[in-house]
Specification:
It contains five helices and six strands. By secondary structure, it is α/β, with parallel strands linked by helices. The chain has one domain: Nucleotidyltransferase, domain 5 (2-Layer Sandwich). It has a six-stranded mixed β-sheet with strand order 5-4-1-2-3-6, with helices on both faces. Helix 2 runs parallel beside helix 4.
Length: about 180
């Protein structure tokens, strides 16, 4: 289900689905990020979901089909990162996705989800468990580490949540696909 990836993470994640092949089942490319201003500190999670049937879905600057921007209160950065993954997977599942490909700038989470690194932090174990359980509901999934520069959409969504909460706005904004 999860294999070692070579080359560009975006190319490799999508490599099993040629650009010219029509996708029959709903597949999302998911970029997530967590933010904490202080560690622990005011924290948030952001996620951007891209329908891989779109020609620009692999472009890090593309507008997401669905997104999450959640303020989490005082948390660690790793809790924020994992929360972004869990909420994105839940959203993808609720939208009927059969397959998901995660692009994360947290190597820790990529390695833990793949089972190559142990989850030692007691606060992360339930989030890891929930993520793994949700991933088990997809026909196929993968996760790859990307540089922060390729994750700016998710980073912006995470930071928007903190700014919005501090300004008295809603703690959570979830945008679903229209149509």
């Amino acid at each position: 289900m999860f294999g070692e990836l070579e080359g560009s993470p975006v190319d490799q994640l999508a490599g099993s689905v040629p650009d010219s092949a029509p996708l029959v089942r709903l597949t999302y490319l998911i970029r997530t990020d967590g933010a904490a201003r202080g560690n622990p500190g005011p924290a948030s999670a952001g996620a951007a979901l891209f329908d891989l049937r779109r020609p620009d879905a692999r472009d890090p600057r593309a507008t997401p089909d669905a997104s999450i921007s959640d303020y989490l209160g005082i948390q660690t950065n790793n809790v924020a990162e994992y929360t972004g993954v869990v909420r994105a997977l839940d959203l993808a599942h609720s939208l009927g996705a059969a397959e998901v490909h995660l692009l994360l700038d947290s190597k820790l989470i990529v390695e833990q989800l793949a089972g190559r690194w142990r989850v030692k932090d007691a606060k992360l174990i339930p989030l890891w468990s929930q993520a793994r359980q949700t991933l088990g509901g997809f026909v196929r999934w993968s996760a790859a580490h990307v540089p922060r520069a390729q994750n700016t959409v998710a980073d912006a969504l995470a930071n928007e949540a903190i700014d919005r909460a501090w300004a008295g706005g809603p703690p959570s904004v979830v945008r679903r696909p229209s149509g």
